[in-house]
Hints:
alpha+beta; 4-stranded antiparallel sheet; 34% strand; disordered N terminus
Amino acid sequence: MMKMRTKRSRKTKQISGVSSHLDLKSSPAIESAVEVASNDDLLIQILLHVPIKTLMGLKCVSKHWLSLITDPHFIRLRNPVPSASSLFFISSSRKRKNPDYQFIPLDVSDKCAIPFKVLDFIHDPLGSGTSVLQSCNGLLLCASFRAHESNRRYYICNPTTKQFAILPQIKSQNLKNVCGMSLAFDPLRSPYYKVVCVRRVGDLFQIEIYSSETLFWRVSGRPFTVPKYTEFQNCVYWNGSVHWWNGSFHWSNGVMYGGHWRDEPYTLYFKVEEESLEQLPTPQKPNYTVGNYVGESEGHLNLVELRWDCLLNVYEMARDYSGWFIKYQVDISAISNKFPIIRENKTHAYHVISLVRRGKTEDEDGSFLVLEIAGGKTVRYNFADKSVEQLWEFAPGYKFYDDDRIRQLCGLPYIESLCCV
Length: 421
């Protein structure tokens, strides 16, 4: 009898997560659990449907489960098509250290938990904390907050797993000439990411690329010229100037100068894999344009044109870069009817935070605009039925906006991810 008990005890110790106090032969449920635990293919199929936060805890079950959940193949299967679940905003620049973040759900009924308020798991030696420059498919590009370029450190982090990596500095003589850093990451193509640095070389510009696969910087191509007012920074105001779409970085010209593209026939975009610079035509715009929003969502690059006549033109870029075409036109009066404060100050009463594309066909189009309006509210305008819903209202004293006008801050997507850095 003792031999039988000893044999059973040894058998159950080999099975992770199964209690040794139960008789395996007397419980069909335990027999099923044993079968699942011993079949990796079946176990993976189950884990693929488990929420990411739960998966983080399941990594502690055993070394075998840890290896399954952290395997690059499993990570790609777990998030085959990343999609933003919420937007977060960089905090007021009036803060001197440790910028914090406010999360806003995209759906009215969504009561998602706040992923984080500060990036306190990154310990920047300068002591002022870190700020987010860019969000790309679950990873964040961050930098030392309020630091001179010669001292600034750059980080890649995953806020879901709280992992981060410090980027090595480029050559010290080039640090003061850095104009912008941008993160390129597509987990469907590769588990590795790249960071593109643009620095000034006299009157020209030079690109250097860092790869998480090789772990070093290298110069890419020759120095080049750019259209006047071209912006390379991932700015926290005016929705930034660098846009990641279709495997390329797209640079705006003049977004920081009044919110509109300057009268240039083209801007530049950089194909990361091919390491080639190309020209991107700018849309022809009337004289009554007062500002633009440019952003990517679900594989679409869109430009929202803000006009004096209370209309919003939404353009989309063709995937072959043949040109822009109008996708939607919005009469802002539909929003001002529900929120009359917009009528009081047409110029500064609203600001496009994001355009979210949803739906595969025209009949299933669930796309919408997210706007910030005076008074600290964010609203959602649905293109299909032209309805307007309030998403969020900032708490009193949370100064993302001024009392007399909105601050026009950049909304960045937060995407849960298991990807490693």
